[in-house]
Amino acid sequence: MFWNLLLKLIFSGIIALLLPTLSLANQSSDLKIIAIILSKTCPLPDGPDMTIDSPDSILKSVNNPDCPKHGDTQLVQTAIANQAKFPTKVGVEIKVRVDGQELKKKRLRKVYTIQSSDTARVLHEINLENTGIYQISVRIWDAQFKRILLNTTAGDERYFFIASPQDIEVANTQLASGVRVSGKRIISPLKFDPPDLRWESVQVLPKHALRGEKLRLRLNLMNAGGDIVKDVTAKIQYYNVKQPMRKSIIAMPSAQVMAPGEIVTFDLEYILPDDQLLGKYQIAVTVDPENEIEELKEKNNVAKSNVIRLSDIKLLLPTDKFTFEENGLFLFQWDSLAFSEFKIQVGVDEKFEDSGSYFDLPQGNRWIADKELVPLAGELPGMAMGLMRAKKKNQLFWRVIGRQASGKQAISGIHRFRITPVSSDSS
Fold it and tell me: For 394-426, how does the pLDDT look when each residue is reduced to its tens digit (9 = 90+)?
């Protein structure tokens, strides 16, 4: 009996010790480092056997505009795929070595949560302050950076070369003496899909604006493609819905660099001219308006905002289709930049064509300078509900008339509202 119990305890201990290892092995098998991509590449030997002993190669690394240079910024992009059926939280490390020595200050360590069957794209920026042969590799850790889950496969590291002044001097001397050294094989880098710029959202507030009022724009631009894109420009225009061909440019924002999956937000403001025609407007946004960037899709670069209603008087409260309680507070609010005196009209005629179907507040020739009004109880609900009973209607409408000192007037749009009676008898 004792020996059986002892064997069970030993077996359980072995299983407990193996469980983290088994879990780690399973997690590692579901993760995959797809590739390492460099923003600046060079037509030189790129691989673990890289040797820059050809004077032609050394001078090409300096003169070719595609090659990274001392003082440049190198963008490193890698993709980690999660093939598991559940999200995985991992630590991603991008290692930088120069001539075999790791530069720990230039490495990246960051924790990412990768959704099931999804790919995380990681972007790292390296200032090229050192000369020599750079080696870039990727390592995947657990979220605490305590256990290594996955390393870049040997031969999949990326290499590039930054020539020193001494390297250049030696290369020029070798060329002058007629020395030639054959280069090594060239390994073509794995390429992702081209970038794809598209607008995720175009939001404009307020939706009902006044002439002279400030519009606030929030534009979210996404790179939905598979590669880095630089020097992204956008054109922001507005136009009257009835005149879509007459667009006016209000801004030309730009983004220097966008990584795959990255979203850039443009927060802009624009003051509508005082003499702008009234009516309905929209904001049109176009990325890469000159079509200078090669993209995966070219037909998704344009988007439009919600319709913006432009007027001189806008109604605030009650909102359209609002319901008052018969014994509650009746409050009317509006806004205007162009007018200084106001009165409101309340009635059952939605077009306010029948003078017997609506009344003014304040009544008579009185006007108010305020932009809100609380009617007397005899007016609302009294007169309003009496009008509904007389005309056999179950809803009301309201609008505002504005007046300037010169006598010029304007009328707002129309909102509808209801009054819920205290009892069924009052309806």
Answer: 999 999 999 999 999 999 999 999 999 987 554
The more confident residue out of 46 and 254 is: 254
Q: Containing domain of residue 252, as a range? A: 197-311
16: which DSSP letter? H
Q: pLDDT by residue (tens digit) across 360-382?
A: 999 999 999 999 999 999 999 99
Distance CA 61, CA 80 (A): 30
> Of 146, 176, 206, which closes a domain?
176
Same domain? 280 vs 337 = no
Residue 304 lies in a domain: yes
d(CA 217, CA 203): 6
HEC string for 311-350: ECEEEEECCCCEEEECCCCCCEEEEECCCCEEEEEEECCC
For the chain, the domain total comes to 3
* Domain CATH number, residue 115: 2.60.40.10
DSSP state of 261: T
Do 218 and 330 belong together in one domain? no
User: In the structure encoding, which two tokens stand for residue 176, read together?
Assistant: 């002058």
- Distance, in Å, from the CA atom of 284 to the CA atom of 164, rounded to the nearest integer, reads 50
Token output for 254:
């730009």
pTM beyond 0.85, yes or no: no
The reported pLDDT for the residue numbered 6 is 40
Task: Say whether both 252 and 205 belong to one domain.
Answer: yes
The mean pLDDT value of the chain amounts to: 85
- Mean pLDDT of the 154-182 span: 73
- Measured in residues, the chain has a length of 427
Closest listed residue to residue 227, CA positions, set 257, 248, 270: 257
Q: What token pair was written down for 241? A: 């819905």
Residues 247 and 306 in one domain: yes
pLDDT band at 2 (very low <50, low <70, confident <90, very high): very low
Is residue 360 domain-shared with residue 379, that is, in the same domain?
yes
Pair of tokens at residue 417: 């509202």
Tokens of 173: 């001397």
